[in-house]
């Protein structure tokens, strides 16, 4: 679609491609790629941020700036949602993350839901925009509620006052998902477990296309403290390209940490980068011409960071200076095609101490030089150092500490190993990175005194159990992340965990097993509804975002479907808690919020009659009457369609229908809900469930 529009625009004589009012980062990526691949016109894109400094889908300002700049846009910024005064914190934050021209097109203040009028006039608008010039704005404009008068006042202000140049900012080394930016300004942990090397069970999972196992590995690592996850799905006999696509999509629906896409095959990397939501790391390129020529252009196209391996056709050099020379070659080639220096990471390569003991210090010396003389970020896969030695954990965590002191930025390790994460946290404390020991204390304040633990039990397996539990104390299944190990002995806690973490297949499997020994309503009341309640609470708090909410709801929906089929086969008709009619009102075509409400209500056992969007007043009345519905939900996103909501409610009352009305949407307020005689105001999907419980039980 975007490609068709861009082509048509250029053919018609357009001078510029503009994508605005975007809320989803992956949508931005699709649009920009379409423009870049089908046109030579400059590209400008703006997203719509709320007062919480995120878009409706949870996208961070930093993630937007990093991703859009990496894709090669010519200007980026913000539009809509807020007035110029309310947008200032957003613009201030954006200005810290880009040196590109900044676009700012606010609304005319905030709308009055009663009058549909905005609260800022043209002179005030220009005055507010005057204060924003310091943030390096190059394109000034207006969005909802503005008129030619606003633009005239704005133009006059700029002619009188001028527009000072903004000093360039230093963009940090950083990678991101849509909702989580990781700045590499200290040692960061890259989880190594999504990799088939030396892992028989993982290899079988790839052969079986067992995505739940992979997701379990991801959750286990992020729970233990991984900042980034390495993703390697290369295995003979499988379609690596498709497996990488499926894995990236699945991982990004369950965890929010950035990913490190680990492959040397250009087609695999291109496909993965195309669907990745954010700015990832590519692992890897090396000093060989074929690798440089094949990989670096792909990295550049998608705006990723890249790891360079300090090796070439002659293998891994024994001496530090030779590895540094390869690192410099990679750096020079990357910079020459436009990859920023802060996006280049060098792996000086860990040799096995048992076979090449003298190589240990050569690795550390090379790492130090790359970091402090070339000025690049560094990477090491740590665990290879101890291969063939007894007590590998001891060697690994000491080497890790030495490497961090030498300048290691990304430590590729198993975060489930107690000593490894302990080394990272202790180093950050001692190096004055962890100010006031906050993170260290958070991790270990409730931990047992290690001096009193039997050292024989502090090996790979048991140590990992300690770490895995550090962040998972919210459910009974927290310590049992690999749910398949419990098959045959599942509990409601396990189903709770599956819903919470978005594990759809396992949610259905657990439900089927539980139905053999439990009543269906016990499963609903003891697992599904409590899990949805918790997800809803986290969404309300802003600690969980829309994609995660949808994933959890999808798991619950699958579990409810298993229960429904079971009840039908048992000649027990599923019991509905009541019928609810929902609709986006006439003239309004925004239905994301309404759709989320539908999923949650259905998951709580209500029968939802969804009329869709742009629904005529009479159609709502007819649906309520035909279904004898006792509750109706109306949604509106635009101020211009609030009058439709009012008229719909008036028609419901004129027909004397025994039906309560709840209303919601971005522009609604409790006050306006009361004014139009709605019975309830629902600020979000979770509250709609609470209202349904009050009305229908």
Protein model, in words:
The protein is of the alpha/beta class. The chain folds into 4 domains: 2-161, TIM Barrel (Alpha-Beta Barrel); 186-417, TIM Barrel (Alpha-Beta Barrel); 485-569, Methionine synthase domain (Methyltransferase, Methionine Synthase (B12-binding Domains), Chain A, domain 1, Orthogonal Bundle), CATH 1.10.1240.10; 579-696, Cobalamin-binding domain (Rossmann fold), CATH 3.40.50.280. It contains 26 helices and 21 strands. The chain has an 8-stranded parallel barrel with strand order 8-9-10-12-13-14-15-16, surrounded by 8 helices. The chain has a 5-stranded parallel beta sheet with strand order 1-2-3-4-5. A 5-stranded parallel beta sheet has the order 18-17-19-20-21, with helices on both faces. The longest helix has 24 residues, at 546-569.
Short description:
The chain has 697 residues and is of the alpha/beta class.
Termini Cα gap: 44 Å
The largest β sheet comes out as: 8 strands, parallel, barrel
Could you name the CATH topology of the largest domain?
TIM Barrel
CATH architecture descriptor text of the largest domain: Alpha-Beta Barrel
The proportion of residues forming helix, as a percent range, comes to: 40-55%
Shape, principal axes of CA atoms: globular
Number of domains: 4
- The total strand number stands at 21
- Reading side by side through the largest sheet, how are the strands ordered? 8-9-10-12-13-14-15-16
Q: Determine the number of helices (DSSP H or I, runs of at least 4 residues).
A: 26
* Name of the CATH superfamily of the largest domain: Dihydropteroate synthase-like
Segments where pLDDT lies below 50 for 5+ residues? 455-480
Radius of gyration: 28 Å
Overall average residue pLDDT? 91
CATH class of the largest domain: Alpha Beta
């Amino acid at each position: 679609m975007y490609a068709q529009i861009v082509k048509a625009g250029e053919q018609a004589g357009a001078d510029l491609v503009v994508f605005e009012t975007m809320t989803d980062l992956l949508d931005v990526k699709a649009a920009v790629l379409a423009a870049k691949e089908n046109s030579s016109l400059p590209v400008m894109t703006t997203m719509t941020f709320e007062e919480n400094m995120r878009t409706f889908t949870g996208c961070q300002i930093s993630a937007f700036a990093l991703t859009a700049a990496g894709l090669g846009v010519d200007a980026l910024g913000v539009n809509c949602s807020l007035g110029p005064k309310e947008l200032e914190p957003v613009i201030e934050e954006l200005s810290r993350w880009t040196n590109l021209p900044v676009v700012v097109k606010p609304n005319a203040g905030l709308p009055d839901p009663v009058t549909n009028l905005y609260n800022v006039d043209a002179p005030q608008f220009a005055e507010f925009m005057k204060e924003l010039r310091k943030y390096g704005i190059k394109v000034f404009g207006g969005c909802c509620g503005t008129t030619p008068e606003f633009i005239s006042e704005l133009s006059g202000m700029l002619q009188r006052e001028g527009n000072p140049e903004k000093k360039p900012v230093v963009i940090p080394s950083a990678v991101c998902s849509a909702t989580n930016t990781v700045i590499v300004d200290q040692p960061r942990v890259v989880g190594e477990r999504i990799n088939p090397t030396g892992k028989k069970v993982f290899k079988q999972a790839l052969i079986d296309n067992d995505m739940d196992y992979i997701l379990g590995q991801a959750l286990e690592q992020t729970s233990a403290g991984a900042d980034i996850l390495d993703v390697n799905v290369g295995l003979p006999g499988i379609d690596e390209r498709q497996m990488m696509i499926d894995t990236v999509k699945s991982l990004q629906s369950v965890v929010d940490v950035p990913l490190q896409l680990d492959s040397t095959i250009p087609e695999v990397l291109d496909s993965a980068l195309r669907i990745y939501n954010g700015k990832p790391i590519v692992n890897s390129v090396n000093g060989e011409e074929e690798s440089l020529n094949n990989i670096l252009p792909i990295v550049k196209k998608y705006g990723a960071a890249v790891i360079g391996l300090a090796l070439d056709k002659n293998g891994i050099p024994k001496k530090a200076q030779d590895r540094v020379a390869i690192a410099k070659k990679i750096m020079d080639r990357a910079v020459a095609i436009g990859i920023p220096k802060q996006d280049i990471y060098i792996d000086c390569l860990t040799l096995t101490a048992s076979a090449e003991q003298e190589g240990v210090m050569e690795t550390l010396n090379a790492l130090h030089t790359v970091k402090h003389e070339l000025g690049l970020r560094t990477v090491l896969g740590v665990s290879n150092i101890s291969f063939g030695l007894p007590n590998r954990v001891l060697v690994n965590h000491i080497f890790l500490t030495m490497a961090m002191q030498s300048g290691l930025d990304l430590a590729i390790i198993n975060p489930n190993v107690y000593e490894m994460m302990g080394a990272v946290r202790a180093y950050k404390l001692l190096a004055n990175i962890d100010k006031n020991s906050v993170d260290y204390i958070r991790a270990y304040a409730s931990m047992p005194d290690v001096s009193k633990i039997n050292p024989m039990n502090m090996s790979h397996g048991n140590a990992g159990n300690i770490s895995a539990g550090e962040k998972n104390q919210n459910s009974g299944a927290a310590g049992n992340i690999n749910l398949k190990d419990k098959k045959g002995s599942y509990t409601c806690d396990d189903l709770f965990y599956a819903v919470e973490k978005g594990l759809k297949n396992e949610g259905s499997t657990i439900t089927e097993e539980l139905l053999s020994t439990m009543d269906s309503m016990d499963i609903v009341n003891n697992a599904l509804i409590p899990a949805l309640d918790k997800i809803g609470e986290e969404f309300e708090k802003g600690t969980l975002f829309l994609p995660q909410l949808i994933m959890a709801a999808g798991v619950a929906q699958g579990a409810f479907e298993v229960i429904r089929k079971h009840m039908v086969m048992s000649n027990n008709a599923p019991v509905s808690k009541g019928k609810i009619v929902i609709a986006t009102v006439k003239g309004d075509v925004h239905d994301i919020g309404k759709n989320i409400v539908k999923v949650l209500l259905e998951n709580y056992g209500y029968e939802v009659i969804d009329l869709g969007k742009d629904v005529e007043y009479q159609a709502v009345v007819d649906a309520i009457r035909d279904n004898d519905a006792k509750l109706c939900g109306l949604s509106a996103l635009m101020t211009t369609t609030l009058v439709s909501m009012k008229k719909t409610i008036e028609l419901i009352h004129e027909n004397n229908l025994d039906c309560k009305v709840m209303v919601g949407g971005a522009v609604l307020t409790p006050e306006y809900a009361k004014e139009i005689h709605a019975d309830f105001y629902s600020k979000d999907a979770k509250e709609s469930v609470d209202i349904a419980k009050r009305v229908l039980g």
